[in-house]
From TrEMBL:
One annotated Gene Ontology cellular component of this protein: plasma membrane
Entries under InterPro entries matching the protein: HATPase_C_sf, HATPase_dom, His_kinase_dom, TCS_sensor_his_kinase
Low complexity bias (residue ranges): 449-463
Organism: Nonomuraea mesophila
GO annotation (BP), single: phosphorelay signal transduction system
GO MF annotations, alphabetized: ATP binding; protein histidine kinase activity
Domain Histidine kinase: residue ranges: 330-435
Protein name in the entry: histidine kinase
Segments for region (Disordered): 438-528
Basic and acidic residues composition-biased segments: 491-510
Amino acid sequence: MSALARPPAPRTFTPRHHAALALLGGLAVTVPACLWAISLAPAGATGLVAAVGGVAAALLSCAAAALAHQRAATGVLREQAGQAGQRIALLEREILRLAEETLPELGGQVREGVPTVDALAKVAQPSDELLQRLAKAAGHELDLLAREAAAARAAGASLEAEVVRLADEALPELVKRVQTGHQPVDAALQEVRQPVHGPLRGLLSETARQIGEGERKGTAAMRACAGAAARVQAQATSLLARLRELEERHGDQEDVFADLLDLDHRVSQLGRLADNIALLSGGRSGRRWTRPITMESVLRGAMGRIGAYRRVRLHSTSTVAVAGYAAEGVMHTLAELMDNAAAFSAHGTEVHVYVEEEDNGVVVTIEDSGLGMRSRERHRAAKLVSEPLDLRMLSGTRLGLAVVGRLVDKYGLMVSFRPSARGGTGVVVLIPRRLITQPRPDDAPPAAPATVPISAPAASVPVAGPPSAAPEDGTREALPKRRRGQTLAEATRDRPAQAAEPVRDGRDPAARLAAFRQAGGRGRTPDS
């Protein structure tokens, strides 16, 4: 046993020894006194004196022995109490050191991976055996807890890695396969890496089921939307055909003809909106062209599809043409970008369009004088035109840039945004060389759309000049005269562009005629 727990050594004289010595001493004193008293007593009283003396001697001796025993026992108890106090104080110090030094140091070494036996050998051990046992038991418990904590950390790390892998790899791949690849949910799940943990596998399966259900509903909604857009396109086609008949019939009546042109322009914009919805719903535009369209006609056709066409200024001397299969897509793209530039600039400002022929294609630059776009907004716009989106992916109600993104993806166009020298925003559109061709010799009147011939109003001025510029002499040219059966485009085809009527007011038929019909043409060619 330790020094703290070892009992005190046996004493040489115990309280009983002290009592015996006191008894003997008392007898040694009282017996002679008793004998002396007997010797002095009369002869008749000797027995009585002897009895009384013996009893008195015995009592005195016993009292002395009891007193000696009590004093000795009290001393022993005092000594034992002192030793117990010392042991208690020592034990308190040992417990305090165990709690504040030994156990924390032991726990730290166990957490660092040191075996319990080695950790116990390195720490200061208490002197008491019971405290040593307590330290060993605590070390083993700490080791067990450390092992359990390590296992829990490993399991948590594995689960976290599985969750990260599920969020960063499995779910995006699953969504891509179901939404983009149009794979069945079960087939997509088999090709996606499955999580190890059962609950995560269940989560992935349920997510796949929900994605598949959402995709089915979204596809059905897109088909319904595309069907509705197709019906609107058909109605626009019918309405435009009727408007053309009325324009032919009432071409000599200025007020009526001006109103018909205004309706024609509005229906053209309605057709563009229907085309937007159709394109974003997975459908196609309502127009198809059978032969190359000159760059000038493409630009003017794009102008004619926006409401603020009078603010657009063209600067182009290009003589190339866009391939017929891509002409509608290019025209629609430029119309959306022109409309966007006009919408985000003041009404009194102009939108300038420049055309340059480069080795890798034709570059069309559209510049406005608006407030411009911050870097974050340009980045968002560039993302919209670089990723083909549909109606399900749009976060707002504006469709223009999303439509541009669909057309860019379909025809391989390149669209970028930059600050404009005019203070607003510049949009650069690259039409790749493979879409560029030379116009046919018989393409004097540009080909009209084959299915939905929505007119393409544009300013009737030289491409390099402002569409609303007035003649230098300040005179106004009269409305062109047509023979019965002659189209309005034929009546104005041979008229010099410089003599076009300036924009005077909203009901000027000559101005509307010049703005709407020079580039649009009325001839129709069947779709080939």
